[in-house]
TrEMBL record:
The chain crosses the membrane at residues 50-71, 290-313, 866-888. This is Integrin alpha-2 domain-containing protein. Residues 575-677 form the Integrin alpha second immunoglobulin-like domain. FG-GAP repeats lie at residues 34-99, 115-176, 181-233, 246-339, 340-399, 403-466. InterPro entries: FG-GAP, Int_alpha_beta-p, Integrin_alpha, Integrin_alpha_C_CS, Integrin_alpha_Ig-like_1, Integrin_alpha_Ig-like_2, Integrin_alpha_Ig-like_3, Integrin_alpha_N.
Length: 916
């Protein structure tokens, strides 16, 4: 495209113009690859039949493509048989999923006539017919591993020997094959064989059966040619002699419980073009009870071995064992030389049973290496089941799946078990890519996923001129009412698409997006596409995006294809003769404080001073400030109205918080930008811009010391502030029943307050009060009460006399006979604060609370008996009478004139009289 520039002042040109082409067909590879999960074919069976327990493709030359699905708990038309099991035939078409049962065995339980008496000889109820289903050409093999039979009439029921049936020549003939139904039908022999528990066909049509219960669970593997089985079958005979049948034999007793034949697979191991068999017994084992199962895949030219261990325990990050499941990959480097590849494929869903089933898929992505599907039938958020698709390469399987298919049904009364059965490596819709069928017997479903054709693309990109002069206006762009001249750049690109079985014509859409301007163009291409046109050139050029669609199943772009190509076009700038702008950005950071306290709500103001001291502008210049976890960003401030307001955004990425501020585009040489940030501790900041040279400033750290500090105070008060003793009507007694019998009540209240700013998490408060003074009892502790999450203990029992409490005082004074002072000392010390940073000093202190005890004088009148008072009065009166009598006897009561006789008055001299 030609990309001209819109001549607007706000759209400054970038120094470097990156032009990219992004090619994609359908959804991205990280979500899904080429198995179509949007429109699968879903087959349904009878409720409770376990439809989907076993699945396989049926591709006969004379019959239409279809699938066969086992339902081992289905009821059939067999007389007197309950849940005998069935196999369903489901023809495939784009919009049809009808299924009908295949009548392998229409008969019920069989009887024999002995001594004119009928005896039942086999038992088909609950035999799980259809638990194993395999196909080869026009032949279908279906087995009932729990089928039982007996040969003697006195045995009420025999053991599960198992049996299988073959449908040959497109359902025109059915034959039974029960190799474990022999004369050795007892636990020592093949009585517990469960023949058909696993089964497979070799490439030339030989049947391979696994019977894990033979010979006290040593197990065995049995194989015979399909044609020999057909020729040996006679309907009235229970025991067959099949020509050419081979089987493993009983070995030493220490091989009991080996379960050989639990799963079987066939492949070429020796290099002699003769297929061998692999059984459950694996060459590597991490733990007992892991349930190892084997499957074979072709990664290179020889058969490789995959071993699943769905119940393997894996030790997690916390050291505990968890059941995750694992799949081991053995590469056959030479005949019979299996090499274990590392790392193993380990499940990620606890109890998901990763590795329960492994299915070779063939080459899904057409890269020359075969791929596999691995099930996790109990995985997913709702235990709906998962199927992982792993692509092969020269060294085995890639570590990460290219696609994860999630089941459509959540777990109900039982898990859906999506993925319990898997079959692949067959191209059902004949589009050249193998398909996959998945069974979910818990919901009686089977799902067919078809593969999309894969598109491989190549692209080329040419940009001219490579040096753009913004002053050259060589194009015209319509700007509403008029056309304006703009500068142009020519962009030419060529895209070609290749792939197996692609549609003849691919519909595509080209979208060019340059900031707010979009241009779309549609077209069609058979082999290659070439476009050349004009578009406006803006400051940022984004990739072009392609999508493709076709009729029917949509193709998808190969996720391994390089889908982005880039070319550069420089813009002629005022940066000297070399046209190279080399900005030199400097950054200084200052703060209004050197330390902050954890828990402090006061904001911190940081000043950032950014300047460009280099040559030319710095394009798309931005300031980045990485915030520490302890700080919260509050905003940008201006302490000078002449400063321009910056545009900043607060972002979080990978648990890292940072602030991004736009400093201009471009930030010209000599520009000085100053900004203030309020926050509340170690900040990292730097400048970034899009110039090719010197595009980052040095990281500037601002160290802010974070301090832990708490201001803790202890307050205390006494209620009442003094105590008078003894109280009124108080009696001394030795038998205390109530709190009032002890003495007056005293309450001490203590309050511990943290004024912050930091928090405290563990503080010890101790209270010491005297119980006695000078041998006299002073204080009787009654009880204590607290508020908040506080735990209190005492070295003395509270209320040890078990007095009846009618108030809530913490103590009672007792037996105070003189002037006492109750002095309690409370001390506190902070032991822990909830921070990784220790405080400089742990707060501590003390507080005294004093309660004076004042002695009350006794009331005498109330304490002297009445008779004593009366006697004292009488004695007083008697004493008064006696005193009067004595005075009388001494003449005390005889009266005399005050100045003598009259003669004596006359003789008085005037002076003497005057003096008198």
């Amino acid at each position: 495209h030609q990309l001209p520039k819109l001549d607007k002042p706000s759209l400054a040109l970038s120094f470097l113009c990156i032009i990219g082409v992004l090619l994609t067909f359908s959804q991205p590879a990280c979500e899904a690859f080429n198995l179509d999960v949007e429109d699968p074919a879903v087959y349904s069976g009878p409720k409770g039949s376990y439809f989907g327990y076993a699945v396989d493709f049926y591709l006969s030359d004379s019959a239409s493509a279809s699938v066969v699905i086992g339902a081992p708990k289905a009821n059939t038309r067999q007389a007197n048989v309950t849940e005998g099991g069935s196999v369903f035939y489901c023809p495939w078409s784009l919009r049809q999923s009808d299924c009908h049962p295949i009548e392998f065995d229409p008969e019920g339980d069989r009887v024999v006539l002995l001594n004119d008496t009928e005896h039942q000889v086999d038992f088909k109820s609950h035999q799980w017919f259809g638990a194993t289903v395999r196909s080869h050409g026009d032949t279908i093999l279906a087995c009932a591993p729990l089928y039982s039979w007996r040969t003697e009439k006195d045995i009420p029921r025999s053991d599960a020997t198992g049996t299988c049936y073959l449908s040959v020549h497109n359902f025109t003939k059915f034959v039974e094959y029960a190799p474990c139904r022999t004369e050795l039908s007892d636990p020592v022999g093949q009585g517990y064989c469960q023949g058909g528990f696993s089964a497979d066909f070799t490439m030339d049509g030989k049947v391979v059966l696994g019977g894990p219960g033979s010979y006290f669970w040593q197990g065995q593997v049995i194989s015979a040619a399909k044609q020999d089985i057909i020729e040996a079958y006679y309907p009235g005979y229970f025991m067959q002699a099949v020509n050419g049948q081979i089987q493993t034999r009983q070995v030493q007793a220490d091989h009991d419980d080996s379960y050989q034949g639990y799963s079987v697979a066939v492949g070429e191991f020796s290099g002699d073009q003769v297929e061998g068999k692999s059984t459950k017994q694996a060459t590597h084992m991490d733990s007992m009870g892991s349930y190892f199962v084997c499957f074979l895949c072709f990664f290179l030219t020889m058969v490789d071995l995959l071993v699943g261990a769905p119940m393997l325990m894996v030790r997690g990050s916390d050291g505990r064992l968890e059941e995750m499941g694992r799949v081991y990959v053995y590469l056959q480097r030479s005949p019979l030389n299996l090499e274990l590849r590392l790392p193993h494929l380990t499940g990620t869903q606890v109890f998901g049973r990763f590795g329960s089933t492994i299915a070779p898929l063939g080459d899904l992505n057409q890269d020359g290496f075969n791929d596999v599907a691995i099930s996790c039938p109990f995985g997913g958020e709702d235990r709906q089941g998962l199927v992982y698709i792993y692509n092969g390469y020269s060294e085995g399987l890639r570590e990460k799946p290219s696609q994860v298919i999630v089941g459509q049904w959540a777990a109900g009364t039982i898990p859906a078990s999506f993925g319990f059965a898997l079959r692949g490596a067959k191209d059902l819709d004949m589009n050249g890519y193998p398909d996959l069928i998945v069974g979910a017997f818990g919901v009686n479903k089977a799902v067919l996923y078809r593969s999309r054709p894969i598109v491989n693309t190549t692209a080329s990109l040419i940009v001219s001129p490579t040096m753009i002069n913004p002053e050259e206006k060589n194009c015209m762009v319509n700007n509403g009412n008029s056309s304006i001249p703009v500068s142009c750049v020519n962009l030419s690109f060529c895209i070609s698409a290749e792939g197996k079985h692609l549609p003849g014509i691919l519909d595509f859409q080209v979208e060019v997006q340059l900031d707010s301007l979009k241009h779309k163009q549609k077209g069609a291409v058979k082999r290659a596409l070439f476009l050349d046109s004009q578009q406006p050139l803006l400051q940022k050029i984004r990739p072009l995006w392609f999508s493709a669609d076709s009729h029917g199943l949509r193709p998808i772009l190969n996720y391994q294809t390089t889908n982005v190509i880039e070319q550069k076009a420089q813009i002629l700038l005022d940066c000297g003769e070399d046209n190279i702008c080399v900005p030199d950005l400097k950054l200084a950071v200052n703060g209004d404080r050197k330390e902050v306290y954890l828990g402090d709500d006061n904001s911190l103001t940081l000043t950032f001073n950014a300047r460009n001291e280099g040559e030319g502008g710095a394009y798309e210049a931005e300031l980045y400030v990485v915030l520490p976890p302890e700080a919260d960003y509050s905003g940008i401030a201006r302490n000078n109205e002449s400063l321009a307001q910056l545009t900043c955004s607060y972002e979080t990425e990978n648990q890292t918080r940072y602030l991004s501020c736009d400093l201009g585009n471009p930030m010209k040489s000599g520009t000085n930008v100053r900004t203030l940030m309020s926050s509340s501790c170690f900040f990292y900041s730097y400048l970034s811009f899009k110039n090719e040279n010197n595009s980052h400033s040095e990281v500037v750290p601002y160290k802010l010391e974070v301090v832990v500090q708490a201001d803790v105070i202890l307050q205390g008060v006494s209620r009442p502030d003094k105590v008078f003793f003894p109280p009124a009507n108080w009696k001394v007694t030795k038998n205390y029943g109530m709190e009032q019998d002890v003495g007056p009540a005293v309450e001490h209240i203590y309050e511990l307050v943290n004024n912050g700013p930091s928090q405290i998490s563990h503080t010890l408060l101790e209270l010491h009060c005297p119980l006695s003074v000078q041998g006299q009892s002073l204080f009787y502790p009654l009880e204590f009460s607290t508020e908040g999450p506080i735990n209190c203990t005492s070295d003395k029992h509270m209320n040890y006399r078990n007095l009846k409490v009618t108030c809530h005082w913490i103590g009672m004074l007792k037996g105070a006979y003189k002037q006492y002072v109750l002095e309690c000392l409370a001390t506190y010390s902070v032991k822990k604060m909830p921070y990784a940073i220790p405080p400089r000093v742990y707060p501590s202190g003390h507080k005294k609370v004093v309660t004076p005890v004042v002695w009350n004088k006794p009331d005498i009148e109330n304490s002297v008996p009445l008779w004593i008072i009366i006697l004292a009065i009488l004695a007083g009166l008697l004493l008064l009478a006696l005193l009067i009598y004595v005075l009388y006897r001494f003449g005390f009561f005889k009266r005399s004139l005050p100045y003598g006789t009259a003669m004596e008055k006359a003789q008085l001299k005037p002076q003497a009289a005057s003096e008198a």
